[in-house]
Amino acid sequence: VSASLDRTLKVWQLGASTANFTLEGHEKGVNCVDYYHGGDKPYIISGADDRLVKIWDYQNKTCVQTLEGHTQNISSVCFHPELPIVLTGSEDGTVRVWHANTHRLESSLNYGFERVWTICCLKGSNNVALGYDEGSILVKVGREEPAVSMDASGGKIIWAKHSELQQANLKALPDGAEIRDGERLPVAIKDMGACEIYPQTIQHNPNGRFVVVCGDGEYIIYTAMALRNKAFGSAQEFVWAQDSSEYAIREASSTVRIFKNFKEKKNFKPDFGADGIFGGWLLGVRSVAGLTFYDWDTLDLIRRIEIQPRAVYWSDNGKLVCLATEESYYILSYDAEQVQKAKDANSVAEDGVEAAFDVLGEVNESVRTGLWVGDCFIYTNAVNRINYFVGGELVTIAHLDRPLYVLGYVPRDDRLYLADKELGVVSYQLLLSVLEYQTAVMRRDFTTADRVLPSIPKEHRTRVAHFLEKQGFKKQALAVSTDPEHRFELALALEDLNVAKALAQEANNPQKWSQLGELAASTNNLQLAKECMQRAQDYGGLLLLGTSAGDENLVKTLGESTLNEGKHNLAFLSYFMLGDLNKCLEILVNTGRL
């Protein structure tokens, strides 16, 4: 297709010298033209000196839409290859972003770089390059996170490829398929049909029976298996409650509506507005004043918190919650009993129940996506690492070579599943037994911990022991650890001389004997201290021990052994302490020190 200052567009066939047809409609010269990249619409877009942008159907040879708004000549037009948007640039210095389906103006960008001359998109990326008189700018449009969700059972994944919904079944992996950490899984993909809206987010409800697709200011709830439409409506945002039959939507920045069994139950206007809502055990509303939690059933205020999180993640039992901001995240415990007591006593303050939440930890890392398994919060961060937080300890599972987004954890597989931007599914091993053990320890439930311990492979037990040590349970850590170095350190810390001696004998390391000797001396076990110092060849320590204890035989033996080894200073000192002046004189003569 070609554009010309003669006010027309011409569509050509390669090899032919005459145009197939001509599109007329602009009143002034046409400067730019682009084809629609998808296969579902036969569209061409053009921009001209008449300050108009026109979208053409090249099969019907008609103009389907005219976009007005620029105040100077149009210099560049572009259909985005991934997102449902049209980008137009003009000599008025603005780049306008239009919705490709509704043709509504979504945004106008003006960076003060004078006239716009070129717009370029990169397939597979959300980055857009803009060229101006005064320089060039790279901007990011849309969401980086792919529209994808995995059901609660860990069997099926639904994702959107443009407007098409597809399903992958993890239970149907080929027989004998070798699953390695970080490698793409050979999942079979099944087409489920087109969605009426362009999906920006997809989210299963907690029991996995329904899935909601959101985009273009609308939402549609489908059955997860057959993709049958159950409910739809207008909303800027949609969240599920922990009760799978309940959900909330946000309309503009003022009204929140709550639905149960697809029927509206309540609606309210938060005091400080609503620029974001969060689902889970409590309904969270973000505003300029911070985050406010409400009870789903009564809409009673539970607590106001002066944090503006980007995401809120609740644990399965509702006792822990992660508030993730742009720069860091906070782990809080939630006490429903304290809330009920405050309600019963009619002592709920203006900011809610102060005792409802306790801060357990703050970590200066940006959470990209995350989930809870027991009391362990697993997440991917901004520097492409998979970490988990439990009991104040941060454990790194893997370092990634690209951004990945958490789909879910499947206990039967002992694996964490993630997706990349290209909708490739990868997994990493994460033993449920280790997570269960750590969760039981955090809850001080050592009966459960002892029951789970035998199922933890021996190669993972030292990591568990380090966790126990950090929680202050050194005795349990000593019983669990399989690393001799770690066990020796724990035995010293616990002043368990018998275990420490056995480990020192196994290692037969002078440094270990020396450390044990110091501990034995400090605990008045002089016999063991003597043995350790002899094995460590700590002659200085032996001399101090012998003279302090008045052990003449020890000092005499020390004098002989140090003399034989050429340690003349120690030998001289030993004989001097014994009062053997002849031997002292002999040492001085032999060493030429007279």
UniProtKB/TrEMBL annotation:
GO terms for cellular component: COPI vesicle coat; Golgi membrane. This is Beta'-coat protein. It comes from Epicauta sp. INB093. Residues 162-420 form the COPA/B second beta-propeller domain. Residues 437-594 form the COPA/B TPR domain. Keywords: Cytoplasm, Cytoplasmic vesicle, ER-Golgi transport, Golgi apparatus, Membrane, Protein transport, Repeat, Transport, WD repeat. Signal peptide: none annotated. Belongs to the WD repeat COPB2 family. One of its GO terms (molecular function) is structural molecule activity.
